[in-house]
Specification:
- The chain is of the alpha+beta class.
- The protein is built from 17 helices and 35 strands.
- The strands form nine sheets. Strands 13, 14, 15, 20, 23, 24, 31, 34 and 35 form a nine-stranded mixed β-sheet that branches. Strands 3-2-1-4-11-12 form a six-stranded mixed β-sheet. Strands 6-5-9-10 form a four-stranded parallel β-sheet, sandwiched between helices.
- The relative contact order is 0.11.
Length: 687
């Protein structure tokens, strides 16, 4: 398998990266996204790279699931549950949208009349006290169908301890359910904690028809184009899964696109010698930030997509704010400039696109300041951007209310956006105990490299590394990402007197299941690693610490698979993890193992980043494009303009300078210098 394409569909643009492993040919493409029917932009971008039939594999990072959750545009879901538990989604953790006041305005994604109870009960120790009433299940399923349900979630209390009742109910309901959009919680999240299990299973059902419809459209379009290769989806944990798994577990795509960008940024920075980075993905609608320490992206056990929408599945820790290139700027009721979260997206887009929008965006502000070349808009759809229309919009919406010139208004908009971005970076660095002066920013996305100087200056970062192709970094991540499958099971074991053989058997079984999913993905891998982690705590504690185990699945000399886990190994690992988290231990208190987490990782063949390097005959003379006025710090400066992709290795460009390329623009502020490293990355530092 040699010809692979990574496709990242964002809110404004669809980015594509093509790599032929045999010829080491690398190409990129960019096409406008089509909100509401993203398959159109997907296919438009693919055809720009050549015949679809010539491709061997496509790996896709998607925001369809994320957008459906944020915009509450999922399917109509029905829930069948245990008596007394139909309100778990509304009770949550007794939190509320607004801390102060007596009333909240939270509405769960499933209204109360779509949540039905059936007789059944399983105890916490796994004992079935009351077998499920299958006639009641079938009647409930029929009632939910009559009320318009498109997907069904079955969630019984304590099903993590014994899923027998849930499985029986699932089979009974499936016999009368008209589609494949049906699941029970033990399939999605067989883990203790009723609300998190209910929320994750429900949101999975909420996304099933949406994601299945989207993938179905893509499959049809690809088949019509003659594509006969493998098609895969990036997960929120940064790994890759088959489209069959994505249809069954769409909740794992909640942060698919942003996760691919973090994977690529970590790989690019690691090859360049930077292990501690902060990724800064500025797209058309949002700004996504993640911290990579020691070369490893941080994984979280769960995330909150929006208030009350809790997804408990492993995913890369990413902080998202509404500050993208299409974010609309306005003066609020208090007379202050605000940027976002509302976005112009790709339709109608910024004012300068000339597609009907009259409200200025962050892109319009950068254009008026001369940082974006109006004659070379990214994406290839527009011949030229309308600078004068952007000036008028900024003057009307920002300048006139505040008594500012169009340029001063544009600079103010950029500074407000920069401040929001800096706040997001502080959230993942300083507020989590990391010294930002040790970290290097990796800005990417269509607009990230426009704000390099602000990221360095406002947060105090060490410097910045701008990837060779910042606009398609997330698409490149789709190519680089390993295949990965995570699963969890609640075990509830005491560490004292641990039955290691019993735990080893559970681990071997889980490892085999996870490895089988990876093997069935259909992508070439060099090896499959199985890794384990335990959720543990001292007895009486509510929350757990993640405890990585220094063991793996191994056939050994006997051919009988084992992990070799022992009580001593688990205790040592727990004490190390607990000490790192809390700087102390609690001697004399019993320790418990709550959950077993298993991950199978199919290691993809290494991507040679030297394939992106500048041509040997590149030169400064060939890259020079003259000068133009660019606004910095309250006035115009003559900035040198460069064709970034024509710069040779070792070139040093002092600010003020603008480096242009088809997928992005890099701004080097006064007082900064950029040099080209052997991979073609730009290393930006203070002079």
């Amino acid at each position: 398998m040699t010809r692979i394409v990574g496709v990242d569909v964002g809110g404004t643009f669809t980015d594509l990266a093509y790599f032929d492993e045999e010829s080491r040919t690398f190409r990129t493409a960019k096409a406008p996204s089509n909100r509401g029917d993203e398959a159109v932009g997907f296919m438009d971008g693919l055809t720009r790279l050549g015949p679809v039939a010539d491709l061997d594999a496509i790996v896709h990072g998607t925001t369809v699931g994320t957008n459906a959750l944020l915009e509450r545009k999922g399917a109509r879901v029905g829930i069948i549950t245990t008596p007394g538990f139909r309100d778990a989604l509304e009770m949550r953790r007794r939190d509320r949208p607004h801390t102060w006041g007596l009333w909240g305005d939270f509405e769960p994604v499933v209204p109360r009349d779509m949540r039905l109870e059936v007789p059944e009960r399983t105890l916490a120790d796994g004992t079935v006290r009351l077998a499920v009433d299958l006639d009641a299940v079938r009647a409930a399923a029929a009632a939910l169908l009559a009320r318009g349900a498109e997907a069904l979630a079955i969630v019984f209390v304590n099903a993590y301890a014994n899923p027998a009742n849930e499985r029986a109910a699932f089979e009974a309901a499936r016999a009368v359910w008209p589609n494949a959009h049906i699941a029970h919680s033990a399939q999605v999240l067989p883990e203790i904690r009723e609300f998190e299990r209910t929320s994750t299973t429900t949101l999975n059902a909420y996304l099933q028809p949406v994601v299945a419809s989207y993938l179905g459209k893509l499959d049809e379009a690809l088949a019509a184009g003659g594509f006969a290769g493998s098609f895969h989806i990036v997960q929120s944990n940064g790994g890759v899964m088959s489209t069959a798994t994505a249809r069954r577990l769409p909740v794992r795509t909640a942060l698919s696109g942003p996760a691919a960008g973090v994977i690529a940024a970590a790989a690019i920075a690691g090859a360049a010698g930077y292990a501690d980075i902060v990724t800064a993905d500025l797209g058309g609608t949002s700004f996504d930030v993640s911290l990579v320490a020691g070369g490893k992206a941080a994984l979280a056990a769960q995330t909150v997509i929006d208030f009350g929408l809790v997804v408990r599945t492993p995913m890369i820790e990413i902080t998202t704010i509404g500050a993208g290139g299409g974010s609309i700027a306005h003066v609020d009721a208090g007379g202050l400039i605000a940027v976002g979260p509302e976005s112009a997206g790709s339709r109608p887009g910024p004012v300068a696109y000339g597609q009907g929008n009259t409200r200025p965006t962050l892109t319009d502000a950068n254009l008026v300041l001369g940082r974006i070349n109006a004659d070379r808009p990214i994406g290839g759809k527009l011949a030229r951007l309308d600078v004068e229309a952007a000036r008028v919009a900024l003057a009307t919406a920002i300048g006139e209310p505040l008594g500012l010139s169009p340029e001063a208004a544009a600079e103010a908009v950029v500074r407000v956006a920069n401040a929001k971005m800096a706040g997001a970076i502080r959230l993942v660095s300083i507020e989590r105990g990391h010294d930002p002066t040790r970290f290097t920013a990796v800005p990417f996305g269509g607009g990230g490299a426009l704000h390099v100087g602000a990221l360095i200056r406002d947060v105090g970062l060490k410097g910045a590394l701008v990837p060779r192709y910042p606009g398609i970094t997330s698409a490149l991540g789709c190519i680089i990402a390993d295949i990965r499958h995570d699963q969890v099971a609640t075990v509830n074991l005491s560490l004292d007197g641990l039955d290691a053989a019993r735990l080893d058997a559970r681990m071997v079984e889980a490892g085999g299941e996870a490895r089988a999913v990876v093997a069935g993905a259909g992508l070439a891998v060099e090896a499959v690693d199985v890794v384990y982690e335990l959720d543990m705590h001292y007895q009486g504690q509510t929350h757990t610490v993640a405890v990585p185990l220094p063991v793996t699945l191994d056939g050994g000399a006997t051919g009988v698979e084992t992990t070799g886990v022992t009580e001593a190994i688990v205790r040592t690992a727990f004490e190390a993890a607990y000490s790192q988290a809390f700087s102390r231990l609690l001697p004399g208190i019993p320790v418990r193992i709550v959950n077993l987490r298993t991950a199978a990782i199919g290691r993809r063949p290494a991507f040679d980043l030297m394939a992106l390097a500048p041509a040997p005959d590149a030169s400064l003379e060939a890259a020079r494009r003259g000068t133009r006025p660019v606004w910095f710090d309250g006035g115009w400066h003559d900035a040198t303009i460069w064709d970034r992709l024509a710069l040779p290795v070792g070139a040093e460009i002092a600010g003020p300078a603008i480096l242009e390329q088809p997928d992005a623009t890099t701004v080097v502020d006064p007082g900064l210098v950029a040099r080209v490293d052997p991979f073609g990355n730009l290393i930006v530092e203070r002079t």
